[in-house]
Amino acid sequence: MSQEDAVREFKEGLTQLSNQYVSKALVHFPNAAKADAKNPYYISYLGVALAAARQKWQEAEDLCYSAIRMKRNQPELYLNLAEVYRLQGKRKDAVETLLEGFPLTKRDPSIGKALRKYGVRRPPVFSFLDREHFLNKSFGKLRNKGLKSTGKEF
To answer: What is the pLDDT of residues 92-117, one digit of tens each?
Structure first.
């Protein structure tokens, strides 16, 4: 299989996965991963598809971890591993994965968005005061506005 075929298989797998046809996606991702075993995206998405379609949790985790080891600074790979954990009902592991990847991906906004989706909050501005204290609330709002204006929402 050529590189072009691998890319075509991968894109078709992504299309099927985004349309919630995980079994159909699982037909395409192994072909792409077999054609280019060093591509972390192919491996990572194969893991997500295995988890979603067949509930092969350990194999899915192993694939996603190996993809992260290949390219530690790619947010999509952390998001995929977190998705595998989410599908298993392991919310804590999903959050830990995202928190681990956040600094390694230069605080990527997509990971910040996923963390907010899980309900993870920033620490209070003044740690010695209660989160509900008016100073923490006021300065927290200012911090949020400042971060949004710089494009760093989390």
So the answer is: 999 999 999 999 999 899 998 999 89
